[in-house]
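Sample intake sheet
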Amino acid sequence: MYKFATAMAVGLSIMTAPLTANTITTQEFQVAQSESGFQRWVKSFRSQALTKGISARTFDRAFRGVRLNERVVKLDRKQAEFSRQIWDYLDTATSPKRVSNGQANFNTQSRILKKIERKYKVDAEVIVSIWGLESSYGQRMGDINIIEALATLAYDGRREKFGRQQLMEALRIIQRGDITANKMMGSWAGAMGHTQFIPTSYQAYAQDFTGDGKRDVWDTSNPSDALASTANYLAKFGWKQGQPWGIEVKLPAGFNYGNASLKVKATPARWTQLGVRTINGGKIPNHGEGSVFLPAGADGPAFVVFKNFFVIKRYNNANSYAMAVGHLADRIAGKGPFVREWPRGPGALKLAEKMEVQKLLNKLGYDVGEPDGIIGPNTIDAVSKFQTSLGLIPDGKANEELLLKLRRAR
């Protein structure tokens, strides 16, 4: 059978190769047809780009070797199998490893962070926190060619407007000389560099902090431009230096939970008057107007969040993300965990217990790697194998019952 992969290997154009049901599979035929349509779309977009000021030289170099990326299409259409609870998300986002790595990177970059903090009036810990969440401090910046990713999104149709807009700006970035097309790597959705800017945000906020004439947010040896760009972004949206994103509080008996809304803002004096206190029983400090926020409902920790919480949401408009950035920044600065426990439910494990599960699995010969409290595929697989060894249903669930069995088996 004439294989599509073979045609690619010997350099044959899929636009001219003989594609029939007798020579390739249906799936291969569909991919080839999509590729043919994609290349026609690229030619059409080229004409539009040239009328927008993109030179033929820039365009042709940027699109050299670019193909329809099926991985991007699949990732764009992929639906999450389940929604993570806020405590599971925060367990991962503010894990001990991420905190310790954050503190290490904070110390390593302390000199440049101080300069950035002075210039942009944005607290260094929050800059490092965003860096940690977006790319694990530069370790996971994405491995997909941005031109290919954005062209695929624009062609595929579901994100056509977004893809076209971001692709045009990406070409302008290349034409300006900030980066070459082959080095413009990032996520499938077009986010780039240490702190994952999409091209339009890059154009609006990226900084040349090193003064070399390039806004290099990809530089693996010097993240200065990326960190300064993030500080500039937060500053432009009103970051208040020296003020917290929020604080953990205690609510009084009889509290009107209708007031626990991000849409309801009041002065600290008013919240104090209504009986809201810091977790240690003091008055709410004056950081400007704030909102009572209950991310897990009345049974979980309560917070009063201030201006900076909403500024973080301009970076990523999710309450869980804003909490993660704020709390990770606090932990990097040496502050402790939240006082009140999350309502994890019967059998659910705390972060320290998840790490104990991993340590015990390793001890019993089920290799899950370094314990980090993240119940990922390796841990689930190890749990299933341990359950099978006991004659249990191998459902892979790491809960209180499993932990007790592991303790007995060690």
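Comment: The radius of gyration is 25 Å. The first strand starts at residue 144 and ends at 145.
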